[in-house]
Design a protein that fits this description.
Layout lengths: L1 E3 L11 E6 L4 E4 L5 E5 L5 E6 L10 E7 L2 E6 L4 E9 L4 E3 L4 E5 L2 E7 L2 H7 L3 E16 L2 E5 L6 E4 L3 E5 L3 E5 L4 H6 L3 E5 L3 E5 L5 H6 L5 H9 L3 H4 L2
Antiparallel strand pairs: 1-2, 2-7, 3-6, 3-10, 4-7, 5-6, 8-12, 9-12, 9-15, 10-12, 11-12, 13-18, 14-17, 15-18, 16-17
Length: about 230
């Protein structure tokens, strides 16, 4: 399978990707609504309901199985980019379902139940784990980066940035720093263990955009210093 991040005119563009399937290739698209165009026979697309143990958001999800030879154009959400990861066996990373766009034939996906506190924090019942050999497509806001975990020293990772983490890692919901720091930050995943976490590095920040706008210095300071300043001093 060949993957190109091209626009319709053939110029590089981050908001869509062209997937070219050769004869014998098969691709599972987990967000079929992102398929913009398909060139191939009608019988080469087969949609199925998948239940993910009946637990993911309490509703069935649809995935599409596409077979080659065919060409597929998939769109990405605004500000997102496609990253393809090659898997070579039994992987121990747990992924958020919403970031997964596709996986190739030969890879198996299964759902892993989260703990109750993680369900409350993420509003997701399960995370996805892959095994087998092939390629998966990840949608991320901006670049995709890795962050090495340490068995003893905790890493604090913004919950909005984490895409995947090792299954054996210790994970707790937390904040860190002094009172002022913890008061103004988003919740963090406190993680220890071995291996790398996958992070999206281009997350938009409306507060930062507002901060560097035309507001006065006094209003900026009040937002940061006064509790709930972002609410009172708009």
């Amino acid at each position: 399978m060949e993957i190109r991040s091209d626009s319709l005119s053939g110029m590089p563009h981050p908001s869509c990707a062209e997937l070219r399937l050769e004869r014998g290739d098969a691709l599972h698209v987990l967000h079929p609504q992102q398929i913009v165009a398909f060139r191939g026979g009608s019988a080469q697309r087969e949609d199925k309901l998948m239940n993910l143990q009946g637990m993911y958001r309490k509703k069935k999800l649809v995935r599409s199985r596409l077979t080659g030879p065919a060409t597929v154009l998939v769109a990405l959400p605004g500000g997102y980019t496609l990253h393809c990861l090659t898997l070579a066996g039994n992987e121990n990373l747990l992924f958020e379902f919403r970031h997964l766009l596709f996986y190739t034939e030969g890879i198996e996906m299964k759902s892993v139940m989260q703990s109750f506190k993680h369900m409350i924090a993420t509003k997701d019942v399960t995370r996805m784990k892959f095994s087998g050999e092939g390629t998966i497509g990840i949608m991320a806001a901006g670049p995709l980066g890795t962050w090495p975990l340490d068995p003893a020293v905790p890493s604090y990772i913004d919950t909005r940035s984490l895409i995947a983490y090792p299954q054996e890692a210790s994970v707790d919901l937390s904040v860190y720093g002094n009172h002022l720091a913890s008061q103004h930050m988003q919740f963090q995943w406190k993680m220890t263990g071995a291996g790398n976490a996958l992070l999206q590095l281009g997350r938009p920040d409306s507060r930062l955009e507002q901060f560097v706008g035309q507001d006065s210095l006094m209003k900026r300071l009040l937002r940061e210093i006064v509790p709930f300043g972002g609410v009172w001093f708009k």
